[in-house]
UniProtKB/TrEMBL annotation:
Keywords: Chaperone, GTP-binding, Hydrolase, Nucleotide-binding
Pfam families documented for this protein: MeaB
PANTHER family linked to this entry: LAO_AO TRANSPORT SYSTEM ATPASE, LYSINE/ARGININE/ORNITHINE TRANSPORT SYSTEM KINASE
Source organism phylogeny: Bacteria, Bacillati, Actinomycetota, Actinomycetes, Kitasatosporales
Protein name: Transporter
Domain of life of the source: Bacteria
């Protein structure tokens, strides 16, 4: 058993091994998870969480790395969480990510972690937010969360971040396809990366059209900016940071940031509660209580709704 309070204290001092240990505890759903989360709670809320999503290979990791460089120049502490919804492996950074992030490997002001979600997207729903909390409590000013945009994960990442960045690249056939897949609702900032390639302007124009950016909006409404970048050369990265700062300022001004964080917390509680309930019900398979209810239903003495109510209230009282 680990001494959670000393781990938390060491993480606060920015000791990378303590941060890694804490993330492993929450990721592995350790028996100490509750103790860890309770210890972290009063220390969180200081970090600005930015989600980056987009199709495989658009340049998310490259862009993330360039953003890290930009934020480090401002003296901010940065956490990076690369969430890979497809990898069955946990904890190990993907080789490509490692290469692209390697320039930050020896910087004590940067904490980088890869996280697999065990082949099912549901994993992202609870594990990633807890890892974000660890990085937040460890004193990161900015946390960048990279997720491959595969349908549901886009929506999930958007619900976890303060600001969502959607990346596109020209000539991947993904621009407008991805747009159709729902990214139009989730992007606060759009990045057309690989602007050194043909078609970047066309992609940006199409996106502009799809987003209806030409149309009139309310005076205080947020207009998602479209930033063109060549992340591999660091071009457009300052503009991206500027767009993020503007979005953050807009959210703070309008109370949107607090509102998003409340909504996020509510969803977290819901996910944890539903998961716990499902596990307890799962434990009941073959249990006497459940089979007794089933017998009464078959005998016509009880309907399944009443039975479910009885089951749930029995679980929550017990
Ligand atoms: N031409 C060009 N290539 C780029 C640019 N940015 C990234 N790349 C290259 O695109 C490839 C994919 O970049 P990554 O940053 O790994 O993309 P990713 O979106 O993180 O990829 P996954 O995590 O596998 O989904 C790499 O070979 C990069 O060097 C750019 O601005 N221009
Ligand atoms: Mg990547």
């Amino acid at each position: 058993m680990q001494d959670v309070s000393s781990l938390v204290a060491q993480a606060r001092e920015g000791r990378p091994r303590a941060v890694a240990r804490l993330i492993s505890l929450v990721e592995g759903a350790s028996p100490q998870l509750r103790e860890v989360m309770a210890a972290l709670a009063p220390l969180t809320g200081g970090a600005y969480v930015v989600g980056l999503t987009g199709s495989p290979g658009v340049g998310k990791s490259t862009c993330t790395s360039a953003l890290v460089t930009a934020y480090r120049r401002q003296g901010r502490r940065v956490g990076v969480l690369a969430v890979d919804p497809s990898s069955p492996f946990s904890g190990g950074a993907l080789l490509g990510d490692r290469v692209r992030m390697s320039e930050h490997a020896s910087d004590p002001g940067v904490y980088i972690r890869s996280m697999a979600t065990r082949g099912h997207l549901g994993g992202l729903a609870w594990a990633a937010p807890q890892a974000v909390r660890v990085l937040d409590a460890a004193g990161c000013d900015v946390i960048l969360v990279e997720t491959v945009g595969v349908g549901q994960s886009e929506v999930e990442i958007a619900s976890q971040a303060d600001t969502s960045v959607v990346l596109l690249a020209p000539g991947m056939g993904d621009g407008i396809q991805a747009a159709k897949a729902g990214i139009l609702e989730i992007g606060d900032v759009y990045v057309v990366n690989k602007a050194d390639r043909d078609g970047a302007d066309a992609t940006a124009r199409e996106l502009n059209h799809m987003l209806g950016l030409g149309e009139a909006r309310g005076p205080g409404d947020w207009r998602p900016p479209i930033v063109k970048t060549v992340a591999a050369r660091g071009e457009g990265v300052d503009e991206t940071v500027e767009a993020l700062e503007k979005h953050r300022a807009w959210m703070e001004e309008r109370g949107v940031l607090a509102e998003r964080r409340r909504a996020r917390a509510a969803r977290e509680v819901e996910t944890i509660a539903v998961t716990a309930l499902r596990e307890r019900i799962g434990d009941l398979r073959g249990d006497r209580r459940l089979s007794a209810l089933a017998e009464r239903i078959v005998a016509g003495g009880l309907d399944p709704y009443r039975a479910a109510d009885e089951l749930v209230s029995g679980l929550t009282e017990g």
